[in-house]
Amino acid sequence: MSIVLFALAVSFGAFCVWLTVRVVNRGWRPTRRSWIGALFILIVAYPLSFGPWLWIDWSFDVPHEIETVAYYVYWPCYDQHSHAAGWFVAYIEWFQTHALNCPWYLKR
Questions:
Q1: Model-level pTM?
Q2: Are 47 and 88 contacting, i.e. CB atoms less than 8 angstroms apart?
Q3: Which of 5, 26, 39, 65 falls 20 to 30 Å from 56 in CA-CA distance?
């Protein structure tokens, strides 16, 4: 698992360097499509990634440091889940129900 995580970190770093060089050389300015993509990630992909993170946290022995970082990254989701009702709480409860009943769920 640590080798895979290391490989993902190195490839992400290489991607960031490549993207930085590309932006600097092209003089890239954010277009409408870039802002729409960023808004989509903030509004849709970020909250929907909270359920899979909970599954990973429950399924595997995640180190405490990673749990701490994930807590700070997903703090708005934790806060929303514990203080509010609505579609997000329904999504988390649905995810908990289905992740616990699926055949590929790994119990600790």
A1: 0.53
A2: yes
A3: 39
